[in-house]
Specification:
about 55 residues; mainly alpha; 2 helices; elongated
Length: about 55
């Protein structure tokens, strides 16, 4: 994979992981019950990072 394209996908996945963790923390603190969505988003972002950088 091209270096710039790999970097772009890595940054995108890292950003999604950050949003997922942020959402997970706030859904736990304020208890609005969407932790499974947050966990799924983090898992997908980490899987994407592994897939892009493999």
């Amino acid at each position: 994979m091209d270096g710039k394209k790999r970097l772009g996908y890595s940054l995108l996945c890292a950003g999604l992981a950050f949003v997922g963790v942020f959402h997970l923390v706030f859904s736990t603190v304020f208890g609005y019950g969407l932790r499974s969505v947050s966990a799924l988003l983090v898992a997908a972002a980490v899987f994407g990072l592994v897939l892009v950088n493999a």
